[in-house]
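Hello again, I could really use a second opinion on something today. I owe you a coffee for this, so here goes:
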Amino acid sequence: MGTEAFEVVSAVLSADPISVDRAIAAVESDTAGAVVSFSGVVRNHDGGKAVERLSYSAHPTAHQVMADVVARLVAEQDAAGVAGPGQPVRIWAAHRIGMLEIGDPALVCAVSAAHRGQAFAVCSELVDRIKDQVPIWKEQFFSDGTVEWVGAGA
């Protein structure tokens, strides 16, 4: 089985708004029996403090790291024989950079596969790896005027 069993539709950092609807539309196909999506949105609180907005900053290597993280996941899943011939697993992932308001999606992922188990597993692993490995930092602006940096990446 070759990497034709997987298709990375998108794996990017985006200064423009991202949406789960766009991600789902990008991975849907006639061979997909399941489409699983994740949207990590900006919430109005953290650690008991009210958050007004936040900003994401990326290390200069983050674009390549994002692509590498997805490629590595695909290679591992492909080696494990997750997808079948003619039933590709399609992946779409994007992380916002720049200033975001409450309710804005910060990380969006969508995975389509022949079966729901595949789609859930790949999407969950994809989200975890992006959050753990891509060097992106979050600057939180609290309503009391304080600011806090959070290391969201490696």
Summary: Strands lie at 6-14, 34-41, 45-46, 49-58, 89-96, 98-101, 105-113, 136-142, 147-151. The chain has three helices and nine strands.
